[in-house]
Amino acid sequence: MINDRLKSAVAFIACALWSTSASAQTPAPVQASAPSLTLADTLSVAVIDGQGGQNEQGALKLTATVQLPNVAGRIDHLGFDAARQRLFVAALGNNTVEVVDTSKNAHLRSIAGFHDPQGVAVLPDVGAVAIANGDTGTLELIDGATLQRRWTLEIGGDADNVRYDAAAKRLFVAYQGGIALVDPAGRVAQRIPISGHPESFQLESQGTRVFANLPGASQISVADRKSATAVARWPIGPCQANYPMGLDEATHRLVVGCRRPASLALFDTETGKAVESVPIVGDTDDLFYDAARRRVYVIGGEGFVDIVQRDGDSLRRTARVPTRDGARTGQWEAQQSRLFVAVPARRGQPAEIRVFTAQ
């Protein structure tokens, strides 16, 4: 069986080599909706299949690829404007925010003038998008329609992840030393002091707690948004370098992605204890919980999206989808069952957004 798979893989690679050579003289279009795989991606698929069929087909279907012209360097977080069907991409290494029209699968515009843009949050009721700049420690609000800047506000060193609480009309911005609560009018209303630099964090919708990863301390910080105070710190045990995080509030569970070792841990938000862990793709920076399918999509810089199935407190990796090395951030849209993965430029291949549809 393995030999048959390897033979098929070799044939597949040979076809890919011929296709790559034949198309080398044709320039790639700026706008593209037809999904495609690079030779490196093809090799990844072949190797995984040759190791025993770990790559189960069908869980995520690649439905579109949108090139991001002239975008170099690392890509950080994304935000989605559902009303306008626009995806905002923090191209950190390019100091731009790229705007994609997801209704047409087309690159719409590149907005310059940012300084290591990292976090993105859409404010639907305000008609705006917030961008955090790591280099200047600022937060900028841009108009969702005109894409013009409304205001710039100083937050603190290494301003990073951003969330928006529409009910409270507050932006939450992580920075070195805590989380700032920002009024959409452009002022810091409160600060939650936290020793260290919070990475990914999640807000309860039915409660007042905020959970934040602290990889420098190997802890999860728990704070109360109403009083703007930190109330607890949970040690994360062997799950080190905890960067991305997801919340299933209905079952009182946090999913946390760790880089050392590469693993996904499940925490009880009532006790702060880890209840399960499973190996995952390395160098993860974003993960998303699909409550309808009870899946976790883990995006890793090793060049894969891992799909982890959850059954109660049991976790099991069921599929591994190839992307490209360095692709470690994305955006999940539950209403459309779509996962957007940011793929940086590598080996002569342009930066792009890959659009997957969950099956």
What's the gist of this structure?
The chain is mainly beta and 359 residues long. 9% of the residues lie in helices and 50% in strands.
How would you characterize this protein structure?
It is built from 2 helices and 28 strands. It has 359 residues and is mainly beta. It has a 4-stranded antiparallel β-sheet, with no helix packed on it. Residues 1-55 have low confidence and may be disordered.
Give the secondary structure arrangement, pairings included:
Layout (H helix, E strand, L loop, with lengths): L1 H21 L16 H12 L9 E8 L10 E4 L4 E6 L4 E6 L4 E7 L4 E7 L4 E6 L4 E6 L5 E6 L7 E4 L4 E6 L2 E6 L3 E7 L7 E3 L5 E6 L4 E6 L4 E7 L4 E9 L4 E8 L1 E7 L5 E6 L4 E7 L4 E6 L3 E8 L2 E9 L6 E5 L4 E6 L8 E7 L1
Antiparallel strand pairs: 1-28, 2-3, 3-4, 4-5, 6-7, 7-8, 8-9, 10-11, 11-12, 12-13, 14-15, 15-16, 16-17, 18-19, 19-20, 20-21, 22-23, 23-24, 24-25, 26-27, 27-28
Helix pairs in contact: 1-2
